[in-house]
Amino acid sequence: MSNHVFVVSEWLPKENCEQELTNQFKKLMALTKENEKGCIRAHVTKQIAHPGAPGKSKYKIVLLQEYINQQAFDIHCASEYVKEFAQRLLLGNEAIIEEWTCRLFSEE
Fold first, then answer.
1. N or C terminus: fewer CB in 10 A for the chain?
2. In what order do the strands lie in the sheet with 5-13?
3. pLDDT tens, the chain, 108 aa long
């Protein structure tokens, strides 16, 4: 069993802000992959329709990330670009995020 940490974060953009938020997340994930040795993968995704998967979420954007361990994820959260992103797009006057959630998982 590995110590890998799998992160699923779900994001609901404010009205008419989905494309802008997607673009901002693509930049953030590129910085993450470029600068963090502990990040194995980081993807910006959106739900697709499929008859075998009828569930639907209110969240429009889902980030899927994998880190070598929890410390690597902590380093990610403490990075300047993540803090700047949160301040600007989640908390600041330019906020374009309505709601979000984040969960961490490990392998059994």
1. C
2. 39-45, 61-67, 5-13, 97-106
3. 789 999 999 999 999 999 999 999 999 999 999 999 999 999 999 999 899 999 999 999 999 999 999 999 999 999 999 999 999 999 988 899 999 999 999 998
Count Cα atoms within 13 angstroms, Cβ side, for 90: 12
CB 65, CB 6: distance < 8 Å: yes
Q: Say how far apart CA 9 and CA 61 lie, in whole Å.
A: 8
Residue 86 Ramachandran class (φ > 0 left, ψ -120 to 50 alpha, else beta): alpha
